[in-house]
Protein 1
Amino acid sequence: MPRTLEGQITMEKTPSYFVTKEAPARISSMCKGTKLIVVVRDPVTRAISDYTQTLSKKPDIPTFESLTFKNRTTGLIDTSWSAIQIGIYAKHLENWLLHFPIGQILFVSGERLISDPAGELGRVQDFLGLKRIITDKHFYFNKTKGFPCLKKAEGSSKPHCLGKTKGRTHPDIDQEVVQRLRDFYRPFNMKFYQMTGQDFGWD
Ligand SMILES: Nc1ncnc2c1ncn2[C@@H]1O[C@H](COP(=O)(O)OS(=O)(=O)O)[C@@H](OP(=O)(O)O)[C@H]1O
């Protein structure tokens, strides 16, 4: 990490930290005051999004439905499949709480980041002790993209949406499989709501 001067904040983004066993101890030993921000979304949609991303790079992989189960007849879910495993947020969070107090972690709702980006970024700015500089007036809803975009990108006067790899169309998944996954995640989601004190409304 680069040196941080007075009045500066150093930020780093690596999605896999949240699910990496060694990460909390390593980050804590580097700087135990580090503030942590985790963006979470409905684990079922997250799993489908994850699969969609892999499919775009490897079009020959098996279907989502077949990868979901260890045994489709018994309905046993393959929790070793990373797309499924990553969404068990309560388990990953337990590992972080061994090294960080819960107040040092901000949980951002992936759903609200889309429906109310300024509101969610307001929470981020408060958490970081920053003035609320980014507000509603920085965003507009781009109908073609189907997502909020920035009215002006940094250092430019032009609007800016996230790239083609963000906001891909997901394949249709068998609704029975989706329901089975909803049932699977429910207890873990409830535990996660309890641990964070936030109801993300995924059920
Ligand atoms: N404003 C805006 N524009 C486009 N996309 C948005 C936006 N806000 C949130 N999202 C959601 O971000 C999802 C992609 O982010 P990831 O976390 O998968 O990115 S990363 O590759 O892990 O960095 C991406 O998931 P998919 O829809 O599955 O592609 C989006 O739903």
Protein 2
Amino acid sequence: MRLHSAERRRRLTSRLGEINFSVIGQYVDYLVEEQGVKNIFVNGTTGEGLSLSISERRRVAEEWVTKGRNKLDQIVIHVGALSLKESQELAQHAAEIGADGIAVIAPFFLKPWNKDVLINFLKEVAAAAPALPFYYYHIPALTGVKIRAEEVLGGIQEKIPTFQGLKFSDTDLLDFGQCVDQNRQRQFAFLFGVDEQLLSALVMGATGAVGSTYNYLGKKTNQMLEAFERKDFSSALNHQFCIQRFINFVVKLGFGVSQTKAIMTLVSGIPMGPPRLPLQKASREFTDNAEAKLRSLDFLSFNDLKDGNLGACS
Ligand SMILES: CC(=O)N[C@@H]([C@@H](O)[C@H](O)[C@H](O)CO)[C@@H](O)CC(=O)C(=O)O
């Protein structure tokens, strides 16, 4: 079972909106030591990969690979872009620096209109890094490309020999289940990306997870994975419900990449800095509310509350 932190690459501090590369080493140590996360997905959604320039994406990937050496198990770099050329350049770069895999989203401005067109695009990117495992990153709510993952997977390995698996960031569990069911004879990785539904996906055959909350709820989620693996489903469900209580709370306040950064700063103590425009920094009110919730669920230690805290999830 692999758990990936979706925060991966991190833009940090700086009033100028520049990336603070110098804290990536600290970030690696935090994920490994405090959250038990050793598989990293760099330059994805949470890392605002699509808001970065190509040279920034290259440099972020290099930092994660360098700082993660001998500490992390796997680093997958997201190399999706609107321009096939840029995507290929990033794929080639990922291979050169020694990444463990690449992932690609569907291009989302001039969109592929059917499965074959999408696969043709993915194939050209994969071919730029012919020795690297390739993942299709399915996130239809953000790309607007609604081609079902189940369809995309049909015959994909024949077209993309390096195809390794799917990162599935959608709530359509019928589609996800069918991806697994129809590919049982293959050794694909099925990485699930909706953290609040991970347990349901595990039941259907998810082999790992990539998500934003593992940056600060990695340890909690690992407890759920362990319970699931030892078939203690009641305990696994308790863990999932606890995680849901938090996500449900923040979703109602307005939750996204900016808010993830604020929570990460709060929990890790590493200054994650503001997001890049068009995203806006999370409000102080959001962070205060999220902090109170984390404490009440015992996701952040708060000794004064512990004894009488009936809602605690520890
Ligand atoms: C739309 C979105 O940001 N989804 C997140 C989830 O982890 C999400 O934040 C979480 O399930 C809470 O809804 C991940 O799927 C994103 C992700 O893995 C990435 O950063 O590439």
